[in-house]
Amino acid sequence: MKNIKEKMQKIQENIVDGKIKSSLIDELIDDLECSEEEYEMILKELLEMNVEIVEKEKEVLEIVEEIEYEEEEKYEVYDIDMIKQYFQEISRYKLLSKEEEKQLIIKSKAGDEVAMEKLVMSNLRLVAKLTLEYISPGTFFLDLVQDGTIGLLEGIKRFDLTKEYRLSTYASWWIKKELIKSLKSKINSVKIPNYIFTTYRKINLADRKISQEKGNRATNEEIASYLEMDIKEVLNIKKIINSKLITINGDVSDNNFAIELEDNNTEKEINENIEKMNRDSKIAKMLKSLNRREKEIIMDYFGLDNGEKQTYKEIGTKLDLSAERVRVLKDRALRKLRYAGAKIKND
Asked: pLDDT of 274-298, one tens digit each?
């Protein structure tokens, strides 16, 4: 691990009026050789210095807007519109005040599933933001969001309410740990050190920042200069990641069934994913997360009982609902299934 004192000195240089942005602290966990205990020690030292850690939610939206300035070929493996749509969807979940967060954590630790779900949904912006920082050719955004959510769940379970910092600050460590674990599982090699992934993330972020400032794509030389790295190191890191990552299109299995459900850009893909999951016994556990009406809509819409799929209008006639209301309930049920899928995978 890099010397903690050196890290602290760098952070102190960025403290303004007794405050520091959480994004700057986030740099501390770039190197996952910084253990959970060491990360907490650094946060504790900041609090003892009476430094206020400022959560900057605006950054989440800014990083999405920056994508539009990038050249399309860099992102040809995933749909930018789909990512923006996902951010719009999760923006419907309100951000929690410190007191609201505290009460929900207390309830979730007592086994309240509704409280846990509210905590997860209100922090999906954080998961999505961190996921975008690790996006690479050959990976899919929603695949990594699913795994990042598993890290968030772990962070919630382990969060110590006696600490003065927010859940998002602490959970970032667990989210990034799970993201790197996920990327490693998708690599066609025996072992790649963590620093390769964390350095690639820095290159990615530098690329976006420079590209936005100059209005066109950053060169490798500019990235190397910005990060004070040797150009050969930048090229080597890119080569390792870009040549090793594989596209994820495999069949549903014990390891990726929840991911397949998450990646549902089109109705056709949703149908295929649900049909695959129907062959897996875990779908029964996931369906338990739905209420009676939601379950009936999902079963009828995807034809899970008899293979005969029904339209929104047909389902609405049976349930005395409008077709639009059926669509809204179906979308809500799918969000619940994604959450349930992440929980089952984490168990």
From this structure: 444 444 446 667 788 888 899 899 9
